[in-house]
């Protein structure tokens, strides 16, 4: 059902007679704020960009279940455990909507999984850090889902219809996740001195990686120019990062926490929080596979894929058995 994108295989944007006219219609559709749908003509570079971004987004949701899963058996109460379990299930659901959206562009889900498992495809850098304490679960909801919302709300208006529509539900759920994370932080910060120290330590470890979620600075972002022209991106990486900082710093101060950035200060004139230099060498190291948890995240994902092989085989065998039974029944009628 999702692999109907039959007319998207042009090798170049202007390689065939009529393509420049189609390109003009395509860009005019985007400029008019209309959506591009799966069976509309689109330049190959637009299709490739979307497959790359949507599949990396899907992989991030799936890998993102691991750091949180680490605390499922150790959540401090039944209520916390139920909420965390529901959140992790939501992430799996987001992965599924996103793989389905990518499939509308004519790629097979199995191909995308294979790219993840081989290490060829990226997923968000943030999930290559360990969850050391329960406070990390609070910080992931507050900061990681908070950053995700800031980045993904504009994606609800992205030019590609299936991606934009998938993002609407994802954003609603992320919003709930952000609040449950902040509520964990609030509880810890109103608790004992040890609990508050645990919350502070989690913020210290996750703040800079959360800022890196928005991608490289605008000057180093290779895909931004095309993505902005195509209205896949509505804001630049740095703009979204700044919006996130401006929204999040007052929340942290309300918790009574400090941010691990001595340069952080409110610029009264602009109303923006100025921040210190991001360690881009660390960002590059994590993207290249050298983060603290890269190897473990992929090894776990591969193991899960192997462990689930018998389920997929059984499901396929059962479907085939039912198909055969139907053929026999129809033949007998
Ligand atoms: N981590 O030209 P740029 C979640 C890559 S899931 C890793 O600026 P673009 C959640 C980038 O892919 C969060 N790689 O790229 C889940 C490119 O490499 P390639 C995921 C990164 O695409 C569970 C290169 O660097 N969210 O929220 O214009 C629980 C150059 O970058 C990162 C999404 O995927 C990174 N942080 O902009 C809780 C949202 N940043 O592909 C929460 C959708 C950059 O050329 N994606 N790279 O090899 C986007 O909005 C955009 O793809 C990005 C990057 C803003 C991330």
Describe the structure.
With 333 residues, the protein is mostly helical. Helix content is 65%, strand content 2%. It contains 13 helices and two strands. It has helices spanning 19-31, 44-63, 65-69, 78-103, 109-117, 134-152, 161-189, 193-212, 224-229, 237-255, 280-290, 294-307, 309-332, and strands spanning 265-267, 272-274. It has a two-stranded antiparallel sheet with strand order 1-2. Helix 2 packs antiparallel against helix 4 and helix 6 packs antiparallel against helix 7. The longest helix has 29 residues, at 161-189. The chain is globular, with a radius of gyration of 22 Å.
User: Biggest sheet: strands side by side, in what order?
Assistant: 1-2
Helix content: 55-70%
Number of distinct beta strands: 2
Largest sheet: 2 strands, antiparallel
What fraction of the residues are assigned to beta strands by DSSP?
A: under 5%
* Radius of gyration over C-alpha positions, nearest whole angstrom: 22 Å
Helix-strand pattern? HHHHHHHHHHEEHHH
Overall body shape: globular
State the helix count.
Answer: 13
Structural class: mainly alpha
What small molecules does the structure contain? benzoyl coenzyme A
Mean pLDDT: 94
Calculate the terminal CA-CA distance, rounded to whole Å: 29 Å
Unreliable spans: 1-12
How would the blueprint of this fold be written?
Layout: H1 19-31, H2 44-63, H3 65-69, H4 78-103, H5 109-117, H6 134-152, H7 161-189, H8 193-212, H9 224-229, H10 237-255, E1 265-267, E2 272-274, H11 280-290, H12 294-307, H13 309-332
Antiparallel strand pairs: 1-2
Helix pairs in contact: 2-4, 4-7, 6-7, 6-8, 6-10
């Amino acid at each position: 059902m999702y692999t109907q994108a039959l007319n998207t295989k042009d090798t170049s944007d202007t390689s065939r007679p009529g393509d420049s006219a189609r390109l003009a219609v395509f860009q005019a559709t985007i400029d008019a704020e209309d959506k591009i749908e799966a069976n509309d003509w689109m330049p190959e570079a637009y299709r490739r960009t979307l497959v790359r971004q949507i599949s990396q987004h899907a992989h991030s949701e799936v890998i993102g279940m691991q750091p949180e899963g680490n605390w499922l058996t150790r959540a401090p109460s039944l209520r916390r455990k139920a909420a965390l379990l529901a959140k992790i299930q939501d992430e799996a659901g987001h992965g599924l909507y996103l793989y389905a959206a990518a499939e509308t562009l004519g790629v097979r889900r199995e191909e995308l999984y294979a790219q993840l498992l081989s290490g060829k495809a990226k997923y968000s850098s943030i999930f290559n850090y360990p969850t050391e304490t329960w406070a990390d679960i609070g910080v992931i909801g507050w900061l990681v889902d908070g950053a995700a919302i800031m980045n993904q709300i504009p994606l609800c208006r992205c030019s590609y219809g299936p991606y934009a529509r998938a993002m609407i539900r994802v954003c609603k759920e992320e919003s709930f996740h952000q609040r449950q994370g902040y509520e964990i932080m609030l509880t810890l910060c109103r608790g004992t001195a040890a609990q508050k120290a645990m919350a502070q330590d989690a913020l210290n470890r996750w703040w800079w990686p959360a800022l890196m979620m928005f991608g490289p600075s605008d000057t180093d972002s290779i895909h931004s120019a095309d993505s902005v022209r195509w209205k896949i991106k509505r804001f630049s990486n740095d703009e979204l990062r700044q919006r996130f900082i401006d929204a999040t710093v007052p929340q942290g101060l309300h918790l009574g926490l400090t941010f691990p950035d001595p340069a952080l200060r409110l610029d009264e004139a602009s109303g923006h929080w100025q921040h210190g230099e991001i360690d881009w060498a660390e960002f590059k190291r994590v993207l290249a596979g050298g983060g603290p948890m890269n190897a473990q995240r992929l090894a776990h994902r591969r193991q899960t894929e192997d462990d689930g092989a018998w389920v997929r085989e059984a499901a396929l065998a059962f479907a085939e058995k039912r198909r055969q039974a139907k053929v026999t029944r129809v033949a007998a009628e």
